[in-house]
Amino acid sequence: MGISVKNISKSYGKVKALEDISFTINHGELFGLIGPDGAGKTTLFRILTTLLIADEGEASVAGYDVFKEYKSIRNHVGYMPGRFSLYQDLSVEENLNFFATIFGTTIEENYDLIKDIYVQIEPFKDRRAGKLSGGMKQKLALSCALIHKPKVLFLDEPTTGVDPVSRKEFWDMLKRLQQKNITILVSTPYMDEAALCDRIALMQDGKILEIDVPGAIVEQYPKAIYNVGANNMYGLIESLNAYEHRHSVFPFGEFVHYTDNRPDFDPASLRRYLERQHLSEIHIEKTQPTIEDTFMELARQ
Ligand SMILES: Nc1ncnc2c1ncn2[C@@H]1O[C@H](COP(=O)(O)OP(=O)(O)OP(=O)(O)O)[C@@H](O)[C@H]1O
């Protein structure tokens, strides 16, 4: 009764936005679609919310077929598109009333579900949506997507352009909604948010690279990974990229994540090489792979 996707493909002219995608999401799961811009996340959301028809394959949401039973799906899903769906010239309260009315309900009837979120923007209920901050717009858009008590909630990049504190609050809210028996499919380009999902699918160029629980995705990283630092970041990246034994070189905060293609890699040999490149303050230390590292590794295969 969650979501089932079987062999879905969709092209826009020559661009293959989705290529033979299959996966299932269990009822009550918080599932993340993780991938960069252009991976095909929005196309998949639009197919699952019945706004776009796939070229091939089949899919069901909350037990309804996306093609044959599109009307039922529209009544049972909430969709928060990437770009804000709000009416900028309507007030906070008017937006919410509008969405309640088109679904034949009222704010009062379903207030319980949105209460935690809506109380935070209620003091501004007469303010036009266009004049809200990013975090407040996001809360209003979520309230609007929830006003008809959906069984499945689709959130397309809900935290893009939102400050880190509001991002954290938003994920706390999703966890609470999940406890209210709502299946949630959320997309994000932020790899750190992936760890907050029950399971994730890593997507690139219209394909799914991997699906699993976040911990298992990290565990399957195939190599020993090192944090490498030096006095000159630019020179360090250039030197590492030119090193004949490098497997991958990936800037990561104040360090570079480095993997070597020799099975018997000795960090001392890398240190000597970097010294010969006139780098100083060299730091090499083994570290744990992140979801981002796994993504980069899968994406290069
Ligand atoms: N209406 C369209 N016409 C032509 N090409 C499109 C259209 N919509 C999307 N695409 C292309 O399909 C591919 C997948 O786009 P999609 O928007 O689904 O990806 P995304 O992962 O959601 O990325 P973004 O965050 O940029 O929206 C991209 O190459 C995009 O340029």
From TrEMBL:
**Pfam families, from UniProt?**
ABC_tran (PF00005)
Q: Name the PANTHER family on file.
A: ABC TRANSPORTER G FAMILY MEMBER 20 ISOFORM X1, ATP-BINDING CASSETTE, SUB-FAMILY H, MEMBER 1
Q: Which residues form the ABC transporter domain?
A: 3-230
Native source organism of the sequence: Pricia mediterranea
Record keywords: ATP-binding, Nucleotide-binding
Q: Superkingdom, according to UniProt? A: Bacteria
Molecular function GO terms recorded: ATP binding
For the keyword Kinase, the answer is no
Q: What is this protein called?
A: ABC transporter ATP-binding protein
- Does Transmembrane helix appear among the keywords? no
